[in-house]
Predict the 3D structure of the following.
Amino acid sequence: MKIIGAFDAKTHLSELLEQVAGGQSFLITKRGKPVAALSPVVTGKRQGPKETITAFRKEFAKSLKPFTLAEITALKENGRR
């Protein structure tokens, strides 16, 4: 993050915006004290809890192998002992 004074930020705002669009971030100071940050906006679809859980379940289900009938029977019988 580069540091730039408020006067220079105001004077060169369009140039700074081009650099920010390219991923650069700036800390704007006034009389040597930080007052603002200029950084790229992170755009992306934010998922709600329902969508997050659904996506997790879908990914988790891919990693599971289906049980055979013999495995299910063995587990059931093992639980009865």
Observations:
- The chain has two domains: 2-38, 49-80.
- The mean pLDDT is 87.
